[in-house]
Amino acid sequence: MERTFGIVKPDAVAAGNAGKILESIEANGFKIVGLKRILMSKKVAQQFYVEHKERPFYEDLTSFMSSGPCIVMALEKENAIKSWRDLMGATNPAAAAEGTLRKKFGESIDNNAVHGSDAQETAVRELSFFFSGTELN
Known about the structure:
By secondary structure, the protein is an alpha+beta fold. Helix content is about 40%, strand content about 20%. It has seven helices and four strands; from the N terminus they run E-H-H-E-H-H-E-H-H-E-H. It has helices at about 10-15, 20-25, 40-50, 60-65, 80-90, 100-105, 120-130, and strands at about 1-10, 30-40, 70-75, 115. A four-stranded antiparallel β-sheet has the order 2-3-1-4. Helix 3 packs across helix 4 (about 60-65). It is globular, with a radius of gyration of 14 Å.
């Protein structure tokens, strides 16, 4: 089994789509092994997205991610990272495949409903950023 990290972003929570997204995650064979509803501070968002610090979208991204509640998740499944990326769909909802979460619930390339780790190393870092070892069993 593999674990990955996901976020239901503030736009999807505000739109009332968190429950539908969680239902879809479970319907696609994921086990939710960690789940928290949080309000990221700007400082926490900046620390989490530090690898994007030099990119032009960093300020908007960290402001958006700290703009309202989101749900952070630890997901488990065979090939979880790839499976979660496939379920999320393309970053731009307009280009995402039918049936993906971003196609169903994303509004724009910036407000695209969900986040997911892109590699094993990223998943380990992101999971440990939001979850302590005792929270995931």
